[in-house]
Design brief:
heterodimer; A: 407 residues; mainly alpha; 18 helices; 81% helix; B: 42 residues; 69% helix; elongated
């Protein structure tokens, strides 16, 4: 549950730097730069936390999960590009809650495919369904607000892009859950996830933009490359927390909880970037009311935690996976319980330190040439929100370390 | 003590098992639909 909350804050903050890129830069190029940041972070953060040697051990036990992770990465790239179209058309504060409908799909897939919410009892069902309805009502309010903000043809493109991102991300949780039912460590999963993500995004950018114009665009955007890659880095921190939440409380609860990111998106949008400025009381009421409704929905879902019978039902799904793919029962059991499979604690190697040093150097070099674009940004609010994010990172990270040792 | 697997799972068998798994096809088809819509938006 703590992981879900921290995920919300960091996933919410990750989209903010997109606002700093010039509208002349194509969404595909912006997404590619973000994915480069994600790529670097996904290889260096796991190296820092546990070392990369544990990844090899996970792959030996469950090689099929490489394909699931790559597939999930491909979906992430397409969804992320959609969100950039949506942010540019209807704004961060409206687009965010729309793509957060992904949690409804997460609940649906969790129930249909992975025995989640089976034997859950009427109270838990009421919490989940009531929450889902509140989220739907909130999304409707926000969609109405978006039509007041921009021309309707543009608004509908933005709304479609945001909802499609929600469908892609909601379905992406199938590979996530598949991996965690098989006992895989989230840090190993993200390592392969990033390959699918990077290859898809690079292929999309080169195909649609052409190599020469893509290169020119990258050069012209060099002053904001740091901010966009930082957005990717921040996203990885949020996603790691989300992965741990999906592993330990399931997708039907972990994902709605991490979708509190929309509140963080709202804070960034309204207070830092002054979105909705001059929009009138009605627009403010619709956006804030819609976001609060969606958050209450997410809270209702999150509080309907799984009981013993439901956990037994998850175990059945895990047994089905281990039989289908021939995974050792002990590996699955220890993975789900968050304990070490072979009793060995993984150590960091020279390769891990090289990865960490290399990534840090690239970020420092980009920071040196970075410029803050001339736009109306509230620095006081930026500092305040960033401090709150760091506080959540430290407190939730410590809680996760104490209970699972990041397994 | 847990044992390492004696033989690596044959790649062809693994791909066949994945191809027969509905859990693979749902995300794959959603991904294709997403790519088609992205083309329209672009």
């Amino acid at each position: 549950m703590f992981s879900g909350l921290a995920a919300g804050a960091w996933l919410g903050g990750a989209e903010a730097p997109i606002k700093m890129a010039s509208p002349d830069v194509s969404p595909l190029t912006v997404s590619l730069i973000m994915v480069c940041g994600v790529f670097l972070a996904r290889w260096s953060v796991p190296a820092l936390i546990r070392g990369t040697s544990s990844v090899g051990s996970d792959v030996r036990q469950a090689p099929h999960l490489i394909i699931w992770a790559v597939l999930a990465g491909c979906m992430w790239s397409v969804a992320n590009t959609m969100t950039i179209y949506a942010i540019r058309t209807v704004g961060l504060s409206i687009a965010f809650p729309l793509w957060n409908t992904n949690s409804l799909l997460g609940i649906f897939w969790g129930f249909i495919l992975f025995n989640e919410l089976h034997y859950a009892g009427w109270k838990r069902w009421a919490g989940v369904l009531g929450g889902a309805l509140a989220m739907f009502a909130g999304a409707t309010l926000l969609a109405i607000a978006s039509t007041n903000q921009v021309a309707s043809a543009q608004a509908s493109r933005g709304v479609i892009a945001a909802l499609t991102a929600g469908i892609l991300w909601g379905t992406m949780y199938i590979p996530y859950r598949k991996a965690y039912l098989s006992g895989m460590n989230p840090l190993s999963f993200v390592t392969f996830f990033t390959i699918g993500e990077f290859v898809t995004m690079a292929a999309l950018a080169v195909t649609y933009r052409g190599p020469v114009s893509l290169w020119r665009e990258l050069l012209s955007a060099r002053a904001v490359v740091f901010w966009l890659m930082l957005g990717g880095f921040v996203w990885v921190i949020g996603d790691l927390f989300q992965q741990y939440a999906a592993k330990y409380v399931g997708i039907s609860r972990g994902i709605p909880l991490s979708n509190t990111n929309q509140l963080w998106g709202l804070l960034w949008g309204i207070f830092v970037f002054h979105e909705l400025h001059g929009g009138g009381h009605r627009v403010y009421a619709e956006v804030i009311g819609g976001s609060i409704l969606m958050s209450l929905g997410a809270l209702g879902i999150a509080l309907s935690s799984a009981g013993e019978q439901e956990h037994a039902s998850w175990q059945d799904a895990a047994v089905r996976e281990s039989e289908r793919y021939g995974i050792e029962a002990d590996y699955v059991r220890t993975g789900m319980q968050g304990v070490e499979f072979d009793g060995k604690t993984s150590r960091r190697t020279l390769l891990d330190w090289v990865l960490i040093a290399g990534t840090s150097s690239i970020f420092i070099a980009l920071a040196v040439i970075a410029k803050v674009p001339s736009m109306d940004i509230s620095l006081a609010w930026t500092a305040g929100i960033a401090t709150a994010m760091l506080a959540l990172l430290v407190s939730c990270g410590l809680a996760l370390w104490r209970t699972t040792r990041f397994r | 003590m847990p044992q390492e697997k004696d033989e690596p799972v044959a790649t062809a068998d693994l791909l066949r098992t994945i191809a027969s798994d509905i859990h693979f096809w749902i995300p794959f088809l959603v991904l294709l639909a997403g790519l088609m819509l992205l083309r329209e938006l672009h």
